[in-house]
Amino acid sequence: MESNNSEKTIVYFNTRDEMVKINLHNVVYFQADRNYTDIYFINGAHITLTTGLVNIEKMLDDPKLNGLLPAFIRLGRSFIVNPIYIFHINVLKQELVLSDTIQTHMYRLQVSRDALKKLKELYKHN
């Protein structure tokens, strides 16, 4: 974890052969791919890490990140999404659209009805 106050949301993923620097504010979602995790960014870029989604979830629960980020939301076994990018939830079509409405890129995820119903309930009283 970076110690500089202006970069507290920067995390580094180190493996035997590579290092990746990620600003969590730019992450739209994480997607499980067996023992790997695909990370999708708001600018349309994406990268694959050699770690499972469980390890990503543990990293996001780091107390050093408390209050610096909106709490990422786990959706079933396949996704962890950044709530600031939730744009449209369609339970019937089992679709979640993630966007900041500024960039031209929108992400459309196929998510179970149950997961979308629970997600929608989080926003019901807002």
Helicity range of the residues?
10-25%
> Mean of residue pLDDT?
87
Strand content: 35-45%
Show unreliable segments.
1-6
Query: Which term fits the overall shape?
Result: globular
Can you summarize the main beta sheet?
Answer: 5 strands, antiparallel
Count of alpha and pi helical runs = 2
Task: Please give the alpha-carbon distance between the first and last residues.
Answer: 33 Å
Round the Cα radius of gyration to an integer and report it. 15 Å
Task: Give the number of DSSP strands.
Answer: 10
Task: Briefly note the structural class of the backbone.
Answer: mainly beta
Provide a descriptive summary of the structure in words.
The chain is mainly β and 126 residues long. Helices cover 14% and strands 37% of the residues. It has two helices and ten strands, in the order E-E-E-E-E-H-E-E-E-E-E-H. The chain has helices spanning 53-60, 113-122, and strands at 10-14, 19-23, 27-33, 36-41, 46-49, 73-75, 79-81, 86-90, 95-98, 107-110. The chain has a five-stranded antiparallel beta sheet, with helices on both faces. Strands 8-9-10 form a three-stranded antiparallel beta sheet, covered by helices on one side. A hairpin with a 4-residue loop joins strand 4 (36-41) and strand 5.
Topology:
Blueprint: E1 10-14, E2 19-23, E3 27-33, E4 36-41, E5 46-49, H1 53-60, E6 73-75, E7 79-81, E8 86-90, E9 95-98, E10 107-110, H2 113-122
Antiparallel strand pairs: 1-2, 3-4, 3-7, 4-5, 6-7, 8-9, 9-10
Task: Describe the structure in brief.
The protein is mainly beta and 126 residues long. It contains two helices and ten strands, in the order βββββαβββββα.
